[in-house]
Amino acid sequence: MNENLFTSFTTPTMMGLPVVVLIIMFPSILFPSPSRLINNRLVSLQQWLVQLTSKQMLAIHNHKGQTWALMLMSLILFIGSTNLLGLLPHSFTPTTQLSMNLGMAIPLWAGTVVTGFRHKTKASLAHFLPQGTPIPLIPMLVIIETISLFIQPVALAVRLTANITAGHLLMHLIGGATLALTNINASVALITFIILILLTVLEFAVALIQAYVFTLLVSLYLHDNT
Amino acid sequence: MASPVPVKEKKLMDVKLGELPGWILMRDFTPRGIAGAFQRGYYRYYNKYVNVKKGSVAGISMVLAAYVLFNYCRCYKELKHERLRKYH
């Protein structure tokens, strides 16, 4: 059983072909582009959701920060849809791979930092030292702030990976336990099944929340730097 | 055997069984032709099930069911070992 747990996280290849590229591109099919003033139900629903989310997310930014609207909205749509599709049986979730999450987190974080340094150099450097610190503590605090700055992209990526992977693993384990318990003791299997149902509901929430948190943090880093 | 209309321009349902290999060989297998085939297939499904006035959940759920089936075929080799059998 130990090998079975982790085989669902390996890169999917079918007869040697990298199917993973197709799987990453699959969610884009589910978001058709609006072509008219009044569209079909699917597109209207998606338009309404995107408007709701973008108004909420871009309210805190100034004009310069709002140029990132497309980036932030596509980010939350991609992570949300990929996580939700990963809850279907037997599917592969690209966001469980640390490589992909680092590939998303590092360029976005670096973009916000470089923007800050280019346009508000003094203010960006001033972030390294909180206001009102006693003078003897300054060197240590600058080091701590630098470390906390460089840990931001790593934390973004690892948070997403760990949450989604842990959820999937828990579902595998509890599902396997339920199946094994049905022959031994039916009532305990029922309890385990209820736990599995609750966990699945949690996973749906986590899928969306993680997308939101990722995007929110990127937008926060952007707000600091514009 | 030779029909009055050339084989190439016929639709699939009008091609006779004996002419089928010839019809398949005459299809456009260039990258542009294959891309066109995917595009035609996508829009055929989209316009029939999604791009309608009162589209229902069936439009997306058929796509998701096909996705689940595709992933099942992909992992079948590992799943073979988990069948409920007395002797594996």
From TrEMBL, chain A:
SUPFAM superfamilies: F1F0 ATP synthase subunit A. Keywords: ATP synthesis, CF(0), Hydrogen ion transport, Ion transport, Membrane, Mitochondrion, Mitochondrion inner membrane, Transmembrane, Transmembrane helix, Transport. One of its GO terms (molecular function) is proton-transporting ATP synthase activity, rotational mechanism. The chain crosses the membrane at residues 12-31, 67-88, 100-117, 137-158, 170-198, 204-222. It is found in: Mitochondrion inner membrane. The keyword NADP does not apply. It is a multi-pass membrane protein. GO terms for cellular component: mitochondrial inner membrane; proton-transporting ATP synthase complex. It catalyses: H(+)(in) = H(+)(out). Belongs to the ATPase A chain family. NCBIfam families: ATP_synt_6_or_A. Component of the ATP synthase complex composed at least of ATP5F1A/subunit alpha, ATP5F1B/subunit beta, ATP5MC1/subunit c (homooctomer), MT-ATP6/subunit a, MT-ATP8/subunit 8, ATP5ME/subunit e, ATP5MF/subunit f, ATP5MG/subunit g, ATP5MK/subunit k, ATP5MJ/subunit j, ATP5F1C/subunit gamma, ATP5F1D/subunit delta, ATP5F1E/subunit epsilon, ATP5PF/subunit F6, ATP5PB/subunit b, ATP5PD/subunit d, ATP5PO/subunit OSCP. This is ATP synthase subunit a.
Automatic annotation (TrEMBL), chain B:
Pfam families: WRW. One of its GO terms (cellular component) is proton-transporting ATP synthase complex. It is found in: Mitochondrion inner membrane. GO terms for molecular function: proton-transporting ATP synthase activity, rotational mechanism. The chain crosses the membrane at residues 55-73. Keywords: Acetylation, ATP synthesis, CF(0), Hydrogen ion transport, Ion transport, Membrane, Mitochondrion, Mitochondrion inner membrane, Phosphoprotein, Transmembrane, Transmembrane helix, Transport. It is a single-pass membrane protein. InterPro entries: F1F0-ATPsyn_F_prd (IPR019344). One of its GO terms (biological process) is proton motive force-driven mitochondrial ATP synthesis. Belongs to the ATPase F chain family. Component of the ATP synthase complex composed at least of ATP5F1A/subunit alpha, ATP5F1B/subunit beta, ATP5MC1/subunit c (homooctomer), MT-ATP6/subunit a, MT-ATP8/subunit 8, ATP5ME/subunit e, ATP5MF/subunit f, ATP5MG/subunit g, ATP5MK/subunit k, ATP5MJ/subunit j, ATP5F1C/subunit gamma, ATP5F1D/subunit delta, ATP5F1E/subunit epsilon, ATP5PF/subunit F6, ATP5PB/subunit b, ATP5PD/subunit d, ATP5PO/subunit OSCP. Subunit f, of the mitochondrial membrane ATP synthase complex (F(1)F(0) ATP synthase or Complex V) that produces ATP from ADP in the presence of a proton gradient across the membrane which is generated by electron transport complexes of the respiratory chain. ATP synthase complex consist of a soluble F(1) head domain - the catalytic core - and a membrane F(1) domain - the membrane proton channel. These two domains are linked by a central stalk rotating inside the F(1) region and a stationary peripheral stalk. This is ATP synthase F(0) complex subunit f, mitochondrial.
